[in-house]
Amino acid sequence: MSGDLGAEVVVRAAAATLAKYQHVNLVLVGDETELSALAGNIVGADARLSIRHASEVVAMSEPPAEALRKKKDSSMRVAINLVKDGSADACVSAGNTGALMATAKFVLKMLPGIDRPAIIAELPALGGSLHMLDLGANTQATPEQLFQYAVMGSIVAADINGIEAPRVSLLNIGAEDTKGHDTVKEAAALLSASALNYVGFIEGTDLMSGKTDVVVTDGFTGNVALKTMEGTVGLCKHHLRTAFSRNWFTKLQAFLAAPVLRALASNMDSRNYNGATLAGLNGIVIKSHGSADAYAFQHAIDTAIVEVRNQLPQQIGSLLKKEAA
Amino acid sequence: MSGDLGAEVVVRAAAATLAKYQHVNLVLVGDETELSALAGNIVGADARLSIRHASEVVAMSEPPAEALRKKKDSSMRVAINLVKDGSADACVSAGNTGALMATAKFVLKMLPGIDRPAIIAELPALGGSLHMLDLGANTQATPEQLFQYAVMGSIVAADINGIEAPRVSLLNIGAEDTKGHDTVKEAAALLSASALNYVGFIEGTDLMSGKTDVVVTDGFTGNVALKTMEGTVGLCKHHLRTAFSRNWFTKLQAFLAAPVLRALASNMDSRNYNGATLAGLNGIVIKSHGSADAYAFQHAIDTAIVEVRNQLPQQIGSLLKKEAA
Q: Within 13 A of A296's CA, how many CA atoms are on the CB side?
């Protein structure tokens, strides 16, 4: 209910998901009247889709603490409750990030050994993809928390992409040991002493170079880096569009080059990377971009399905236990 | 002497600068034998170019404190000394950033009211450019230091781009007042109370959107954002190249679209933005990218010339005095 584009996007993504997978059941959580109007015909035809009523919606601008305290029957809260009581294996939401995180942390609790959840997402990289965290769950992180992020990132990369011993890097302002502030240097010491495949510091220039599988950083820096990528891709696309629409000759070129430009757009299309995991929770919660369309939202559901199949929380928990031993 | 590509790049940039400007004098500082071999014919023909011998070179990997203590006759140190004693109006170097900053701070001193230098550069933005600082001079910054950066950034934007009342933003992970850590919130309070044209928080997505003229952040975040932009542009270019070289048909398209692709490349060419200012010093020092070619290095000299014409240090000093009053 609480994404920027409303419930219709979610219903369309649900329909596409049911067509794609044989053994997936979906519950639409929210206003029953609205959801029935949008999805009634699918619910009637396919027993794998059901509707669960929730009387409230958390607004995008609502302070997380307030949403948590006052909206006990929000679509977000009810969906997370379904994960808590085992009626659902995962929750996917395009709603208010802060409220989703606060609610998920309160209802599901953290895994033992994890202080705070971190937001992790898969991003485009040369020859594959990379997993970066924290993308904004917490503005600051201690060296120990960065270490926990590294454990979680390793599991996600190994699970989702099947990478054995994923290469883990710390985002820093230089590759040399002497670079950066104390937090990042101390985290490097912890990672060097661990069983993780820590490969050192990485700079912004090399984020998408294919040299690393997991990039660990605090939520402030990670959020800025992620959004700067998005903004830069937008500027590149803008310049291409402008250049190709200058006159009839460049427009003809654009027409001829359309398949190539579409390939570029698809490579850099953030919709193909939609669906960030709230890692560290005792349960699976996926955050979709607030303005995701049905195509992007479906990708977020895909991510949830992969994590359920691979029992992500259990795997993070057992690796943490191994590291602590 | 100390850039990645050696003195030849600098000599070629110097020759181009002399051809472009009538009233500029240049001093090449470094090994006299090497510089004479490279530039002897120009020095003979044009009295505006001279050579000043320096017996040492600071290596790229040399710790700044060591360079400062041990290499008193490095090309970098001698060049900055020329600024100190008034023989030169500005110093441009492609050498070790940390050593350049430490040496400049030690020799030239800070302007009254400025704690530390900040690295500021002009970057591409929609419909113009933006000035961002700190790009890595200091890994952390207090709210007061962020405020000082804002003052320096305003002056540079006004001076270099002639923008009246440049719009100043703080880089943050959300646009709302409640977002971010305490440092950025306290800096926002200082800026709101100042005479600067503070327009609020800005997210990474909007850095290059044309909504702001000056972006203020700590050196860690700024460096990551800058390098992430570079890396993202590189990935876009790579995808374009790959897509266009797939087969003879796409190669033909690339040939037809070459002027458009060149326009894109030029718009996003970091060489056109080479030359970062070490702001806050009592003197003008410009840092060129270590791997700058002659074209890029010439752009760094251009920046120095504009700052000399506009007496940048004096302007920053007087605005700070006004803000303190």
A: 20
Tell me the two tokens of residue B77: 């140190």
Question: Which two tokens mark A129?
Answer: 């993809």
Cβ B211 vs Cβ B167: under 8 Å: yes
| H or E segment to which residue A303 belongs | helix A294-309
Identify the CA nearest to B233 among candidates A228, A258, A203, A217: A228
Reference A312, options A274, A287, A291, A286; nearest CA is A286
Joined together, the tokens standing for residue B12 give: 């070629």
Residue with token string 């937008």? A234
Q: Burial level of B218, CB count in 10 A (0-12/13-18/19+)? A: buried
Q: What's the full length of chain A, in residues?
A: 325
Helices A219-244, B258-267: inter-axial angle, 10-degree rounding: 140
**How many Å apart are CA B31 and CA B249, to the nearest integer?**
52
Give Cα A97 distance to the centre of its chain: 11
Helix (H) or strand (E) holding B256: helix B248-256
Interface of A with B in 182-211 (CB under 8 A): 203-209
Radius of gyration of chain A (CA): 21
The answer to whether residues B217 and B139 touch, using CB atoms and an 8 Å cutoff, is: no
**Inter-residue contact B57 to B2 (CB < 8 Å):** yes
Contacts of A33 by beta carbon, 8 Å cutoff, 6+ apart: none
Query: pLDDT per position in chain B (325 positions), as tens?
Result: 988 888 999 999 999 999 999 999 999 999 999 999 999 899 888 999 999 999 999 998 898 999 999 999 999 999 999 999 999 999 999 999 899 999 999 999 999 888 889 999 988 888 888 999 999 999 999 999 999 999 999 999 997 778 999 999 999 998 888 888 999 999 999 999 999 999 999 999 999 889 999 999 999 999 999 999 988 888 877 777 776 676 776 666 666 666 666 666 666 666 777 889 999 999 999 999 888 999 999 999 999 999 999 898 888 888 888 877 6
- This prediction's pTM: 0.87
- A258-267 vs A248-256: helix crossing angle, rounded to 10: 70
Residues in chain A within 8 Å Cβ distance of B234? 205, 208
Closest-CA distance, A23 to chain B, in angstroms, reads 36
CA pair distance B43, B35, nearest whole angstrom: 10
Closest among B160, B152, B158 to B222, alpha carbons compared: B152
Chain B residues lying within 8 Å of A250, measured CB to CB = 259-260
Q: Which of B176, B226, B238 sits opposite A126 (nearest CB)?
A: B238
How far is CA A124 from its chain centroid? 13
Nearest to A260 among B171, B221, B244 (CB): B244
Q: Taking CB atoms and an 8 Å limit, are A223 and B204 in contact across chains?
A: yes
